[in-house]
Amino acid sequence: MDNFFNDEIKKTVFISDEQMKNAVPGKLYGKYYEDTKIYNIFPPELSDRGDYLGDLLPLGSTPSNGFCGVISDNKIIFYYDSEEVQAESYGLYQSIFSRNKGILETSVMNTKRVVILGCGSVGSLVAMELARAGVGHFLLADPDVMEYHNICRHQCGIEDVGDLKINALSRKLKNINPKVHIEKFEGIVQNLPKTMLDAFCVANETIFVGCADNRAADVYTNRISIYYTASFISIGFWERAYAGEIFYHIPGRNMPCYECALGDGGNISARAQANHHIYSNQENTEGIKFEPGISVDINFITSIGIKLIIDILNSTNPEYIPRLLDNLKQYTLVCNTSNPEIGGEMVEIFSYPLQVTTSLVVGFGSKCSDQCKYELEDK
What we know:
single chain, 379 residues, 7-stranded mixed β-sheet
């Protein structure tokens, strides 16, 4: 293949430093791109997703026809039809997160732990963005299957339909960071085994993220987070995602928890309640409870929640400068529209489209006096 100036584009191999230095004879898996002449050798964690490219031969071997590699001293020499192919090795972790340098410290983010409760349109975006931010440990909980009607809002796609959402999302996270640690639970938060949480949660390093439209689950989850000295954030939506609400709790800061501050929340907003998935073989969906809403509206509100999560995860780092945590209150409303012809009467509380409230204040409920009852119990 030649470029504009008739210079031949030479074949190149991309491979991680780890694979280059710790080579073991066997098969090479990855992708070859004809347009760029690049062989991308996948790390071992992703080898099952790659195409067979050739063999990695022991030290002293004669190169075979086609593409292959021969182990040499602390490196691999690659060949195509016995002619040597240039190789570019890279530090996998450092290269993936190099664009975060100076903004997020990857060594710090890699120790953080996130429990994502609900892996639908909200939870999948939260997980993907936190993986890109360098978070190294995830616990994914969701009982549902990926279906075709999910595709227009979910981070996963057609190739994932029919699998559990936790499995589909896990693959996406591994494709961002092959070294990420993932635990999965097929079920709702109320059924999460204590033994699993005991093994996963680390005090002051963990955040629970409520991503299902279910206030009872948020109350329950926030209570669990207090037990583990972990933070909590809930991201919920109003009808058709015309607006949404975000609530967070950080232990040890004398904040009201979700139940202390909002109770069941039924009288304070138009937040939609739990919406059960619709199976694709149901022909008549009229009257079935589900919550429509387009991806861009969901993502706008969710992204604000993600920024808060990153701030909260770094809140113990004195050198970190928060993006939103110092400016947004514990309870925040976010709108996609302030036009009642689109969003109904409830959106009239917003002064302008895309408004993010900064003045709402929540306090301790009647059962709590001046401190969260669950934090008192924990002590």
